[in-house]
Amino acid sequence: MEKYFKMSYLIDIYSSLLTDKQLKVLEYYYNDDISLSEIASMLNISRQGVYDTLKRAEKIISEYDDKLNLLEKYERNIELIDKLEGLCEDKESLSLIKEIRENL
Asked: PANTHER family given for it (predicted)?
């Protein structure tokens, strides 16, 4: 999985474990594709401060995922739902699968 996609998923999963500043920096950098210099200007901090915050936040969410494996479990659930969807033929079952997918 490309680093940007993986980090975006990790941000979604572990965002509540980050400070507001860490979350903003990660979202700006990975989700909005904003450069470190632009983020520094937006948050009124140095580019080095943005870089340090980014690296610290990446480390935090990576360590959580190393221990909890929530991204791997999420991906596995999506695979299982895809397989189940392929096996179902009636509209009621497909509707239920769609609801499950939306609530993951």
From this structure: UPF0122 PROTEIN CBO2450/CLC_2298 (PTHR40083), UPF0122 PROTEIN YLXM (PTHR40083:SF1)
What is the C-alpha separation between 61 and 85, in angstroms, rounded?
31
Q: How far apart are CA 58 and CA 93, in angstroms?
A: 39
Q: What pLDDT, on a 0 to 100 scale, did the predictor assign at position 30?
A: 95
In Å, the largest CA–CA distance within the chain is 57
The answer to pTM > 0.90 is: no
